[in-house]
Amino acid sequence: MKLFLRCLMCCVVLANTAATQSSRPASPAYGQAKGITDVPGISVGHFTLSGGLTGCTVILADGNGAVPGLAQRGGAPGTRETALLDPANAVERIHAIVFSGGSSFGLDAAQGVMRYLEERGIGVRFGGHVIPLVPAAIIFDLPFVNDPKVRPTADCGYRAAGDATADRVREGNVGAGAGATVGKMGGAGRTAMKGGVGSASIRMADGLVVGAIVVVNAVGDVIDPATGRVVAGTRNADGTLADARTLIRSGATIAGPTPGQNTTIGVVATNARLTKAQMQRVALMADDGLARAIYPAHTMSDGDTMFSLSTGQWEGTPNLSRIGALAAEVVAEAIVRAVAMADSLNGVASAQQIGTVPARMK
Q: From CA 61, how far away is CA 271, in angstroms rounded?
C-alpha cells in the first residue's frame, strides 16, 4: 500500500511539472540578427582607421533624439558631456553617443558627429542655432596601436556617423573596439587577449525590446555567465588561461595596470517610454551585466561607463524593474560577444584562436 501511494504521488508530481512546463511562455531569444539596432530608432556606425588598430563607433538616436541615463562606476573614466545626463539637469534628450579609441584624444570624434548632425538639422534649437547633444566615452588603446599620432579625429566621427545603419551591428575588431584588449592583470610573463565590440538584444512577446552595444577593453577576464567559463582573459606564459578569479583568490603577485588604461563602455537602449530619472535606474541595473561577465570589474584602473537610451516608440506600459533586469542580461551577452567575435590582431590572441568561443556564438 505504501509503495502504491508513493508511486501515485510521483505520478501527480510529474504530471504537475509537465503541466507547468507546457504552460510557461517560451524564453525570449537573444536577437542575434541585429543587436542594439533591433530597438526601433537606433542606428550604429563604425569607422576603423587604416591599419585596423583603432577607430570610433557612433550610436545615433533618430528623430528628436532619445531620453538618456548614465551609470559610471569605473575609477578612471574618460568622457565628454556626461553632466548633461544627470536627471537634475535640464536636457531631456540627446542625439548620439560616441565611443572612441585614442584615449582622451579620441574625444575629438564627437565633434565630427556634431557636425554631421548639424548639417542635417538634428539637435536642440536655441537662439536660431541647431545644437546636437553628443556625449562620448573613450578607451585607452595607444599601446596596442604603437603610434601615438594614430588616433580617431573629428573626421573619423563624421565618417562613422555617415556609416550608421539600422542593419545588423558589426562586431569584433571594428570601430572603437579595433584596439581593445582584455585580461591585463599582468605579472609572471602573463599576456592579454583581444577585446572588441559586441551587441545583443531581447525582443519580448508584447513588443518590448531591449538591446546593448559594448566596447570591451577591460583589466579583467571575460566570463560567460551561462557556463562560468573564461572566454578571454589573462594568459599564462604557456598560453593557458590563468583565470583572474584563481589568481586573486590565491594571493598571487599581480602587476596592477596603470589607471586610465582600461575600460568597458556601453549603451543599453529600449523602445519603452521612460523618464530621464528612470533611464538612470536602467543604466545602473544594466551596469550589473559588467559584473556578471567581467572579473574583476569597476576597478581603479577601469573607466567603466554605461549609457542608456529610451526611444519611446513602444506603446506598452513599462515596468522599470523588468526593463532593468533585461538590460543587465543583454549587456552581459554583448560583452561575451565582443570577445567571441574578435579575431587575433597585432600579435594578440583571440577567443577564436584558442577555441573558447561559446557554442551559441559559433
A: 11
**pTM for this entry:** 0.90
Which distant-in-sequence residues (6+ apart) come within 8 Å of 308 by Cβ?
68, 69, 70, 71, 267, 268, 269, 270, 279, 280, 282, 283, 286, 327
- In what side-by-side order are the strands of the sheet with 55-61? 42-48, 55-61, 96-100, 136-138, 79-80
What does the pLDDT look like over 290-344, one tens digit per residue?
A: 999 999 988 877 788 999 999 999 999 999 999 999 999 999 999 999 999 999 9
Torsions phi, psi of 79, nearest 5? -140, 170
Distances in whole angstroms, Cα of residue 261 to Cα of each of 74, 97, 302: 12, 21, 7
The domain locations on the chain are 28-353
Mention every residue, 6+ apart, whose C-beta is less than 8 A from residue 103. Answer: 78, 138, 139, 140, 141, 142, 151, 260
DSSP assignment letter at 200: E
Which residues are bridge partners to 80 per DSSP?
136
Closest CA to 336 of 315, 352, 353: 352
Tens of pLDDT, residue by residue over 1-29, are: 444 444 444 443 334 434 333 333 334 45
Rg of the chain (C-alpha set): 22
Q: What are residue 265's phi and psi, to 5 degrees?
A: -125, 140
Are the beta carbons of 138 and 104 closer than 8 angstroms?
A: yes
Q: Which residue is it, cell 543583454?
A: 330
Over range 113-128, report the average pLDDT: 93
CATH, domain range 28-353: 3.60.70.12
- Cα angle: 130, vertex 135, 140; to 5 degrees: 140
Residue 316 gets which letter from DSSP? S
Give the pLDDT score at 14: 39
Angle between the N-to-C axes of helices 276-286 and 320-340, in degrees from 0 to 180, rounded to the nearest 10 = 50
